[in-house]
Amino acid sequence: MTHTPHPAYPPPTGDVTRARRRPRKAVRAAVAVAVVLAVAAGGSYAAGIGPFARDEGPDPEALTQARGFLADWSADRLAQAGDRTTRPDEAAEVLQSFTAGLEIDGPKLTAAPSAKVKEAEDGTLTVPFTAKMPVTGLGTWTYTSELPLREQDGAWKVDWRLSVIHPRLSDTEKFRLEREETKTPEVTDRTGRTLAAADFPSLAPVMGQLGTGGDGGPRGAVQLVDRATGDVERTEASFGDESAEPKSDEPVRTTLDAGWQAAAEKALGEAEGKNAALVALRVDDGEVVAMANSPASGFNRAVSGTYAPGSTWKIVTSSALLLKDAVGPEDGVECPKYLTVGKKFQNVEESEIKGATFRQDFTNSCNTAFISLRGELDDGELGDVAKKYFGVGQEWHVGVPTYDGAVPAPQDETEKAASMIGQGRVQANPLIMASVTATAVSGRFHQPSVTAGNEDTTETEELPQRVVTQLRSLMRATVTEGTATALADLPGEVGAKTGTAEVSDDQDNNGWMVAHRGNIAVACVVEEGVTGGGSAGPVLHSLLSAMPQDPA
Description:
The chain has helices at 30-33, 60-74, 78-83, 88-101, 258-267, 301-304, 314-323, 358-363, 367-372, 381-390, 413-420, 430-442, 465-481, 532-546; strands spanning 3-9, 108-111, 118-119, 125-135, 139-152, 155-158, 173-180, 187-188, 219-226, 232-239, 252-253, 276-282, 288-294, 338-341, 343-346, 495-501, 510-517, 520-526.
């Protein structure tokens, strides 16, 4: 087996000469940053008074700076991240060498809750955070670290040191990425047509994982090495299973459809160069017919991404409410401009619908209406419904590595309000939301699959037919008269739901859309797409118009 070493990163710190950016504006008030602004028809949650706007606890401006640093790092705005530190130039340089050198694509960095922030007697703060680092073509390296903060020139700054990036990174130790060459099997679609990576670029990163139960494929490791000698001190993360070589030399037959896969990759061109992903699967059995990513190389966002699903999650929330007859489609549920639940939530452009019915709330994605119904559900009930009926949060065996979703019980009323509209700590990806859509319109969850014969340990129950009928009607109305009119000119009975998910105050919202037609359910996310209808809508329109017939 051939080992291909990559240079160790980052290099030792030192003075770096480069043009200085213009000074940043003063740190915004915590009221404007620590919470979220809903700006689009898919509906993201909004706030006015920040969760830390109180007389005790850490200084909210410090927490705002910490979260801003993590958001900039996540979005590859490394110069801006550096500007939030006590050593801007050095920080930006090291962040760049770390992410580029270890081939990290799309890091996800999450600050711990304010209750876990440590405050020293000298007034400095330490904010723990979790880092999820997708290493291109290998997998995600997850670890925890801490951000030290102190005041500098009257403003809070991240007190820069190498251990900010990782607790073991130092002047004497650095990281190195090593890859191992592995055998890639021949892969075919559901009809036996060969799927070559050159023709279907989105499949290149997963080709080696097929035919091994999803555990094989590319292998490698992130190693901690001595800067002076290059000796390996420890392995920080390992990827791939050395025992999981392809089970035979026979071609690996997948559930994918070459036509749908080609159309999916082409449709992502409508994302206008933004990071995006989509999944299309069969409603009656969960077989994936297309999974595509933009950019095509690197992280498989379509099935392994971790995103807030925004208002597409209202399909699950509506299911939970309809299951217990807490509301009916024609029941009146007011849609005011604002609703305060610890924080001030609002609708797109502060819109309201006077005398609204629940149907109108769904089709127009009214955040405040859904949040007002939170008392109809127990604290853990939304997660229970997601797991019991939709399989979200259970372990899936798809044939390639996947992230299978999370709907943790809310920690307080504010988080419960956020979870009603697919924010807070609710996490999903296009695979999950395509499956959610298929389950909603058929009533039955099928574990998604990319290859045949996968183990299925999921246990779910069928949705009652009355709930399925109501959900199908609501999704159809969203296309004909609501936020998904981008699909209204397509033939057939298309149903859909848009979503807009808040990322941070420093990033545009992610745009979502899910849809179904015939025996196909699809889901698309466009990072920083601003609105679901405006960004994900054209992608799904391109896909569905190019593929008018369901795959056999």
